[in-house]
Amino acid sequence: MESSTQESPLNSNAFTFDSPHPVYAMAFSPSTSSSAASSPRLALGSFIEEYGNRVDVVSFDEDALSFRAEPALSFDHPYPSTKLMFHPHPHSPLLASASDCLRLWFLGPDGAKIRSVLDNSKSSGYCAPLTSFDWNDAEPRRIGTSSIDTTCTIWDVERGAVETQLIAHDKEVYDIAWGEPAVFASVSADGSVRIFDLRDKEHSTIIYESPLPDTPLLRLAWNKANLRYMATTMMDSNRVVVLDIRAPATPVAELQRHCASVNAIAWAPKAARHICSAGDDGQALIWELPAAAAAGTVSPEGIDPMLVYTAGAEINQLQWSAAHPDWIAIAFANKVQLLRV
Amino acid sequence: MAACSAHSRPRLRVLDSSPPSHAHSLLVLRPVLAEQPTTEHSNVDEKREDAHCAQVIITAGVQRKLLSNFDTLTLTLSSHTLQTAIDLLGCRRLSLPALVTLTELTPPQYNFSYQLVRSRLCRGMEADLEFHEELIPEKHHLRKQIAATVRKIQWSYAIFWSISTRQPGVLAWSDGYYNGDIKTRKMTQPIELKADQIGLQRSEQLRELYESLSAGDSNQQTRRPSASLSPEDLTDAEWYYLVCMTFKFTLGQGLPGKALANDQHIWLNNAQFADSKIFSRSLLAKTVVCIPFMGGVLELGTTEVILEDVDLVKQITSFFWELSNPICSEQSMSSPQLAERGEGIRCPDIDNGIDNSIPLEEHNLITDHRTPLESDPTTHFPFPIHSYLPTEQTESVKVEELHQNICEEPDSCSPDDSSNECCLTHQLEDLFGADGLNGMSRTHSMQLVDDEFSNGLLHGSLSSNEFATMSFVNAQRAVPSATREPTRHQMLGGLQEGNYGKHISLDLDGDDSHYAETVATILRTSKQVNSVLCFLKVSFRSSFVVWRRGFNTPKSFISTPQKLLKKILMDRAWWSERRRREKLNEKFLALRSLVPTGGKIDKASILDDTTQYLKHLERRVQELESGTAVLGTTDRRKNPDVAERTSDNYLGKEITNEWKPLGNKRKACDIDEGEAEHHFVLSKHGPVHVTVRVKEREVLVELRCPWRECLLLEVVESMSNLHLDPISVQSSTVDGMLALTVKSKLRSSNVASPGMIKRSLQRVISKCL
Q1: I want to staple B475 with a disulfide (CB 3.0 to 4.6 A). Which of B32, B68, B75, B733 is the partner?
Q2: Which helix (H) or strand (E) holds B196?
Q3: DSSP 3-state assignment of B470?
């Protein structure tokens, strides 16, 4: 295949996969028990500005330190996928993708097959593109999608039916993240972070609004190790805003050491205070948030990151493997790199 | 001596050059800033102030690799095994690493950490057990002595560290007495015991628990076989005490090791704030005193802050001696180690007694570095010595000198060091402020400073990110070279730069295999451990480097910020265009299904066919409408569809009807439809347009047709017959074509339909054509 592992000139510990296409969407498999004894595995979604796109599955062999493409599990995908996610349970063969609608793919021994197409736009005849989705790891029946039509849709993926659809924001919804089985948050072009509880669909809580009115919030990450914290990024901003949901309105920290806009954020899967961010400056930064009690003592200049990786091109995507927390994957141009933490 | 005076920055000194033990604790907790717990721990709030978040650090006998990659290691640990490792040290029970809450640990982690605790305890035991056994005859008596001592001064605990027989030169747990709070009292017999008996029993139980945990490591089945206590029963202080059992110190290392090496007691105040370099177990006890005697070290600790009191130390010693006659054997046992100690210690005059215990070099340094600061000894110290309360004046002369020596550093530091100095000073100022000790720390015992230097190197270097950044960037770079010497030197260089100065004698003799072995030993018990193991391994080769301000800051690589992200989220031109085209194709196909085509499916052909077909239909409509009278029912029969559609149009309130008229109706009557169509188009009289618009009671008629005499009059007349009252009439004739616009009002409610009006007008027009 096109796969080639090479050591980056910048860093001998970054492992590069050259994809034939530009890559945007990326997902780590939660599986730790694949045949190659817990090797990190990635699904990569191409970004080609037309209908025909690809999703490729590659594994990384930690002994040989090389990538291995799994062509049998790769498949054609309509439009670029805006997000990919494996089923939260390690042994499930399902992979979800979002583009014009939500699709579930079955990655079986015979290759990848489409399992279901979840599209609630049949009535309108026009499908509002999905900007993102999140698979509820505590309640894997649930996937929440966010759409430019200002709504979030909660799917029951087992029934393949809409559980509920909420008009979540005043403008396009750009990202969505689950906190609890019935609680999710979303960010939007209207500049707000809102939390929804499916048990009370009438209300939502705005926990943050971007300082300049209507500065779109693009990405959202909820800290799975400590649900108090979530992080969001703004359009054309080098800042990562860290929020404490118990103290709405005021961020607990604003991480602003990127030299250009931030494109992606990911919390450390198992540590409560570490987050990685990546941006147009080609850097992936790992931050340690100050302990809560010390939060007030943060120097006015703000928090410095602990570690940095320099990719040499703008980084569009970032994923931190939950199954292998020592690996972070970044995507830039048509390259995917695995970084050791 | 000259060499020493050349050291302009002799902050700290290592008095002992003995190789660090590889067997000593692998994991050390270093309390740093507090984080509030979110748990349901009831006592959490009480401990709020004391709550320390623990940073787990691997020291592993000062493995060079670890050292040189230390920045990375901290991170990986904290991101992955922080909770685990904290839990592992039992510190969850201490509730100080409050950042980790039990609820956040998943069951596997829990289990994992348990096993790690046990494996660690077990390791600690290896050296201890045999030692323990050998002391059995004296054990009971020793404990009683310890108990009596600690109870007398009412401190929380006492530990006697003595030289391990198996590992000469290593101080290990010999015995101890726990005198602190007890959470759960498990009585094996329901007998009322005296306080001292309770204490002894408790201490014994704690030891049993420790042993059972350790034993459980090698035998899962007999885990906790006989311990009358379970880990859940322990107070924080007891956990601390228990964890202490796992520690070992080489001579000069750690507080006990230092005390023994210098043969001088050390009084550490505010131990919980102490840099772990000084006191690695600084978790709970606020005051710790280490008194070297009987070839070992007696460590006493209390949760109270107690200022140094030499009398108390003397008192303890003498009190102990009074009781200790039967322990001669132990003394003799440990004497070989004492002899051996001399070799390991760099300062030759260590045996000269307390007064001379500071090496000569140091005196030199002191004298060489008198500065203005000397006159103002209350100035801030440039490194974290804040935690020591003044030592006695008796020993303070040299200490003060040393101190000045330290104080002057900010002045004498080289330029390239200034940043370090600044950040450290800054940090210290904070610490000073927090401690409120201010000038009090002007005297201190320098031995403390070097306590546990090996751990301290790590901890110290981590004490602030800036520091770690500066001192380890070089070191890390050196790692890939895999050359031991350069690595060591660079690392040392980094460390020295980083203010830990004179660790010249630091022995970094550990090698990789030993490291791997150690880790493997530690982690051998659990499957999950594998991940940690490889986790540790890979951390040597981290992709990341320590961030530093201004370090190689690239600007944006692209002119449009967030280009791809925006394309994904908002700039969907490509997307909507694609969808638009797709929709278009669908519509074309729908159209094609309605229009008879010549079999061509390209869009142009479909459009052509549709145009032709539409024209045809329009003509048919016109023909049917205008020619009903003439054509009779023939057309209707032939083209029912068209007729119906046409009539549909009249239902609307606003109606526009245009058509191209027939040219010769007689011909049209005679010929078939195809021909009629032809003739309509070729009509020599030109086109006829009649438009009738009805808006409420107003009717607008627009008409275009070939002019003839009286046509205008007839038109108005026919309108009048339909109860239309012309309001305004505009007409013009160009090239034999009449263009007429008539605005009229309906006279009655008997509304003529637009169709009727139109037909009537068409009749008028065609009458004499």
Answers
A1: B68
A2: helix B195-218
A3: helix
- Nearest-by-Cβ selection for B562 from A12, A13, A261: A261
Q: Where are the beta strands (DSSP E) in B687-736?
A: 689-695, 698-706, 724-734
* Distance in angstroms (rounded) separating the CA atoms of residues B409 and B382: 7
**pTM (2 decimals)?**
0.43
DSSP A184-237: EEEEETTSEEEEEETTEEEEEEEEEE-SSTTPPEEEEEE-SS-TTEEEEEETT-
Contacting residues for B176 by C-beta, under 8 A, at least 6 apart: B143, B146, B157, B158, B159, B160, B203, B207, B241, B244, B245
- Provide the sign of the torsion angle of the four alpha carbons B569, B572, B578, B579, taken in this order: positive
Q: What is the pLDDT of residues B183-220, one digit of tens each?
A: 655 444 445 556 667 777 777 777 777 776 665 444 44
Tell me the chain A residues in contact with residue B82 when contact means C-beta distances shorter than 8 Å. 271
DSSP assignment, residue B499?
I
Distance from CA of A142 to the nearest CA of B (A): 22
Inter-chain touch B568–A325, beta carbons under 8 Å:
no
Chain A, window 202-221: residues with a beta carbon less than 8 angstroms from a chain B beta carbon: 216, 218-219
Residue A196 belongs to what H/E stretch? strand A192-197
| Chain length of chain A | 341
pLDDT > 50? residue B361 = no
Which pLDDT score is estimated for A52? 86
The predicted structure's pLDDT at residue B140: 64
ipTM attached to this prediction: 0.90
Return the amino acid letter for A304: D
Alpha-carbon distance B546 to B210, whole Å? 39
CA angle B65, B67, B71 (to 5 degrees): 110
Q: Which residue of A has its CA nearest to B426?
A: A299
User: Quick one: which of B23, B60, B84, B230 has its CA closest to B526?
Assistant: B84
Chain B residues touching A40 at Cβ < 8 A: none
Closest partner CB to B75 (pick from A47, A282, A286): A286
Cβ distance of A82 and B80 shorter than 8 Å: no
Q: Does B38 touch chain A (CB under 8 A)?
A: yes
> What are A265-321's pLDDT values in tens digits?
999 988 888 999 999 999 999 998 887 655 555 566 788 888 889 888 999 999 999
CA dihedral for B90, B93, B95, B101, sign (positive or negative) = positive
